[in-house]
Design a protein that fits this description.
Blueprint lengths: L5 H5 L6 H14 L6 E4 L2 E4 L1 H9 L7 E3 L5 H13 L6 H19 L23 H9 L3 H20 L3 H6 L7 H9 L5 H7 L11 H4 L19 H25 L2 H4 L1 H11 L1 H10 L11
Parallel strand pairs: 1-3
Antiparallel strand pairs: 1-2
């Protein structure tokens, strides 16, 4: 009997009901499971859906293929890479798998960041391997290198949210909820005791992208804050709630930046620039209090 590791299984985007039914029908028509189930030390690495069908139809013959991996990180990286090359994925699923693959490969091949054997050659913390990991993953998936490093933070945020609020990972990856990337990343950047609240906040309308627009237009930035599009009439109160969401998102995004790059606050040259930049919102408030004209643009 094969074993199921739920951490491995959770990396695989689930089939829709229609896809699962079609797979089951194909197997029953063939009278066997044609593709072998990939295993590692008796644990399923690829073929979880096929194994579910086998359990329902134990008369169906199947084969297994044992792969050699050095550790669990290498298994997880292989699962992500395999899924990225196999199926149609949502943008959220693709970003999560790329980020997870990058994280797992760094854990396996990157070594200790503090050692002299594995120096970082990238401001985004890319560790040297036989080929620069993030550059290779970017090339494999036809994305930019910066996309890979951002995807790592996104995947970390989803995993942290899942640990705090079980089930929310599937809500995000299935597109049931569409929180902006900065809100997802902020969960991992926050102290553990604050993550449950931040994870639950991912379901709030104020941190959602506009429906599935981004899936139709890959170039649209998912960090944009746009006025809400409620079913009810838009009025002053709804605009106030939208402004509240903008303010909360700005605070979370700022905290995320400072958590990821603490030198922004600890080194004087960066700290002065941070203070200069962050003066713009207070100055805007002062202008409102003084009855000044609306500022349509902020200075660079």
């Amino acid at each position: 009997m094969l074993k199921i590791d739920h951490e491995f299984a959770d990396q695989i985007p689930p089939l829709t009901d229609e896809e699962f039914e079609q797979l089951e029908a194909n197997i029953l028509d063939d009278g066997e499971v044609i593709n072998p189930i990939i295993i590692w030390n008796g644990v399923i690495v690829d073929g979880h859906n096929r194994y579910r069908i086998i359990e329902e139809h134990p008369e169906i013959p199947y084969r297994t293929f044992e792969k050699n991996f050095s550790d669990r990180n290498e298994v997880m990286a292989w699962i992500c890479r395999n899924q990225l090359g196999r199926r149609n994925l949502t943008l959220e699923q693709k970003k999560y798998l790329i980020g997870k693959q990058y994280r797992m490969e760094k854990n396996t091949y990157g070594g200790d960041r503090k050692s002299t054997d594995a120096k970082s050659s990238s401001q985004n913390a890319n560790l040297i391997s036989e080929r620069k990991t993030c550059e290779r993953i970017a090339k494999e998936n036809h994305v930019e290198k910066t996309y890979v490093t951002r995807a790592e933070n996104y995947a970390d945020g989803i995993d942290a949210a899942e640990d705090a609020v079980p089930g929310i990972r599937q809500e995000i990856l299935s597109g049931e909820i569409c929180p902006i990337t900065s809100a997802v990343q902020a969960v991992a950047a926050a102290p553990p005791e604050e993550r449950a609240e931040l994870a639950k906040h991912l379901r709030d309308p104020e941190v959602q992208r506009r429906g599935k627009t981004k899936q139709k237009n890959k170039k649209q930035a998912d960090e944009n804050i746009e006025p809400p599009t409620p079913r009810h009439k838009v009025d002053e109160n709804s605009m106030l709630e939208s402004l509240r969401g903008v303010a909360k998102t700005m605070i979370r995004a700022s905290n995320q930046c400072f958590n990821l790059f603490p030198t922004l606050l600890t080194e004087q040259q960066y700290r002065e620039r941070v203070i200069e930049i962050m003066q713009e919102p207070p100055n805007f408030i002062l202008n409102i209090e003084a009855g000044g004209e609306l500022q349509c643009q902020t200075k660079n």
